[in-house]
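pinning this so it doesn't scroll away 📌
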Amino acid sequence: MSGYQDGRLRARWRRATRLLVAAAAMSAGSLVLTATLTAGTANAGPAQRAALAAPTVSSVTAGGAHTCAISTDGGLWCWGSNYGGQLGDGTTTNRSAPTQVGTATWTNVDAGTGHTCAVRTDGTLWCWGSNFRGQLGDGSTTSRSAPVQVGTATTWARGDAGPQHTCAIRTDGTLWCWGFNRTTQLGVGASPYVANTPLQVGTATDWVSVSTGYGHTCGIRTGGTLWCWGASSDGQLGLGNLTPQTAPAQVGTATGWTGVAAGYVHTCGVRSGALWCWGENGYGQLGVSGSYRTAPVQIGTATTWNRIAASSDTTCASRTDGTLWCWGKNSAGQVGDGSTTHRSAPAQVGAATSWTGGLAVTDHGCAIRTDAGLWCWGDNSGGQLGDGTTVNRSTPAQVTLPA
């Protein structure tokens, strides 16, 4: 870890997260797992038939120790650690199997460390869970165990929840952020220190995506330009220096950026099919050897990367051939390669070539295959793998939503 890193703050955050997850009492859930992918419907037993009839998944997000997914019918499901109410089921009881969040239909969901935000089909934005730093955006710092609406706007397109701040884009292309602003990660200057309602980031109306890290944020505009702001303790802004930014600053002059993912203190992005990473590299999360990088460094020579996910100290990405690759911290098996060895270069997750759906990773990972089946692996201390246990897995295991 770089000497520039705020070690005490980071240690406190990680220690608090571990204690909260460990202290939360587990409640047994019921989950039907698909026992085999080759068994036909006619020969399937009752459990297999139930799994085959269950809803399939269109998107997935991984929080600190919880997971949420939207089914193809628009239903929202969450499971795992629930100490702050981040599962949205009205309780603070952990769930080791998927539980539905109300009956509304949803289009987008993103999980932070201890909170979750999602957009409904009517364009309204809702958040729930931990709210000590105003990250729910409801005008308070009160934690919520059920979804609470963020303002009254009906033009929200998508959101991204970080450890203690949240950002979201509206259909008019404007970008809004709220929550903790200690390292200017909101992009609105050094003040306020905490914002408990959304604040517009500049006046641009061409934002298409945003990703929130621990103390920094990055986003892409319609022209394919990449912008980052907030802390730069290890070069996570990609600007070639360690200077923090209070407002969005362009990363280089290149266009062609199609995806960006902000991790704990590192960032990765896809540009014209090539994969680039920068920032802290203590676990190899940049996909190269050596120390931190203050400017983007290309990972290999492949130009067929199409999706990127990063959070905590692990990174995952998929290629156009349907293969899935992960690297970085692997103490809980979150790289998914069957080991717990940290990786400083992309390691393929199994041999499947059907990973073409959603992708998310923190200390656990989840991804969707072409058949809309959901698979998760890694840390399972809060039941976030959704398999009814709290046992870690170093390879993907299928998760089935209740029928």
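📌 and the second one:
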Amino acid sequence: MSSASPTRPARQQLWTVQEVLQWTFERFERAGFGEARADAQHLVAQALGCTRMQIFLRYDALVDDDQRTTLRELIRRRLAREPVAYIAGKRGFHGLGLELAVDRRVLIPRPETEHLVDWLLELLPPPPPPYPLHVLDVGTGSGAIALAVKHARRDVDVTAVDVSPDALAVARENAARLGLQVEFVRGDLLRGVAVPAGGFAAIAANLPYIASPEIAELQPEVRDYEPRLALDGGRDGLDLVRRLIDQCAAPGVLTGEGRLFLEIGLGQAEATRELLLARGYEAVEIRRDAAGIDRVVSGAAPLG
């Protein structure tokens, strides 16, 4: 920030919150950020130690030197293409109001995953269930799916598995801070997971689904900061999806009415649907996200 800003006369040295916010927005807009205004609001609020809504109540307040120094560092990190969620160290998830701690050990939770959570919750038997219900979150990362399900349904036993010990550390910290009882397991997909008697009522997975050759073309915020382990889905993006579909088709893994829910990438819905049908899954369906993209594919447990 300097007095050369087009929004502030050069003779003035003190900046108001409104002026700092406008300067930051214009800087991000020139850098080509798609969410320049939201990014500016998040970082200004962080520098001031308040919420995004509260900055609008402080428009005329002066920004002191310490706050400006803090904001300069936040802006520097964002201009280096570090995601705002990592800079803030947190990300909101789901209409349930969960706030999850996130850092470079885990993928940043996306709004698209909320559609998977909504569908899963919609199909679970209503409380109180006639028998214990068990839900499994495969590739839990920050714990977003597992914690959202547990927050909405305290009566359900939730297990979360991830191959990354770093990711599990983040997920455990989120569970402890939110006061949610989830069992965390280190394992490769279902390997290491104890299947409960009768099976899981639902298995959810937001697995890596970016095709390996496409990773180099991703936005710098994703390619350079988010863990490759959480992105790379193999030659066509579906390597882990195939394995999980096969594992969940084994007798006893899902209850008789249990379902597998899979979040997938753009253009992968039909291929995933065919994989489920080929392994005998019933009532296979596809749901779109808010952008109209086929995002979640679900199938009921194979008969027999």
